[in-house]
Amino acid sequence: MTKLKRYLTTISKSFWFQWVPAVLLGTLTIVLLSLGIIPLYYLWYTFIMWILVCGLGIAVGYHRIFSHRTHKLPTWKENIILFLATFAGQGASIFWVALHRGYHHRYSDQEQDLHSPIHGKWNAFVGWERHVTESNNTVNFKYAVDLLRKSNHVWFHKHSLHILWSVPLIVAFIDWKLSLCAFWLVTFIGTTQDNLVNLFGHYKSFISYRNFETNDNSQNNLILGYLCWGQGWHNNHHYSPASYDFGTSVSNRWWEYDPCRIFKILL
């Protein structure tokens, strides 16, 4: 048991217990849907959970509220967001916020920015995760010290992997198709879309452009801007990180719609 614990501290849990299973189970779900083994109406569950997990959980919760402190919420609302965001497969809020604040914005597209494309496209997409382990954690949690003072964030930090695996397992005993479509396919989508933002949000392509001259390589991406809950308007975001509506309110370009506006009524 001691050897197992020691071994687990030397591997990347986010890579091997979140990203890899999400890819495998998410791909399996797509195959089963295409073969008709899982009825297509189950995609409605995927769609609803994608809105709640990737939209409310990550784009609004982890990114805007917790990382950039755009809103103050009561603890019960935070807990709902923390629970939902867990199923995006991107780790707990303390890790996510420390990485985003302390490295991605503080040193954007510099050596210390762990998932910048300057280290390579694969590294920007997901390769960086393999280097983050318990025994070699390159992310300093001091950049999320405000969340470390909150017991609910600390609790989810300790139990995020347990929640990510146990809830879909419990649901699977009731309906395995629902477990795959409402959870693992959403986790696959959640990890993929934000990893694509890490890459193409800082890499120039034929569908990217810049509205503002910033001290990094941030780009707005016409596809990811809509599909990734406004996170693809990445140059806008780096120009004004704390702006909640970092779409038309920043650039005044009418097509840069921020899908996260639908959640305003909940905050």
Describe the structure in your own words:
The protein is mostly helical. The protein has twelve helices and two strands. It has helices at residues 2-8, 13-34, 43-67, 75-86, 93-105, 121-125, 145-148, 151-174, 176-200, 224-227, 234-239, 248-251, and strands at 208-209, 220-221. The protein has a two-stranded antiparallel ribbon. α3 crosses α9 (176-200). The chain is globular, with a radius of gyration of 18 Å. The protein starts with a helix and ends in a 16-residue tail after the last helix. The mean pLDDT is 94.
Global morphology? globular
Mean pLDDT over the full residue set:
94
In total, how many beta strands? 2
Rg computed from alpha carbons, rounded to a whole number of angstroms:
18 Å
The description of the largest β-sheet is: 2 strands, antiparallel
Q: What fraction of the residues are assigned to beta strands by DSSP? A: under 5%
Helix tally equals: 12
The end-to-end distance, rounded to whole angstroms, is 45 Å
SS content category: mainly alpha
Could you name the ranges where pLDDT drops below 50 across 5 or more consecutive residues?
Answer: none
Order of the strands making up the biggest sheet: 1-2
Instruction: Please estimate the helix content.
Output: 55-70%
SSE string, helices as H and strands as E: HHHHHHHHHEEHHH
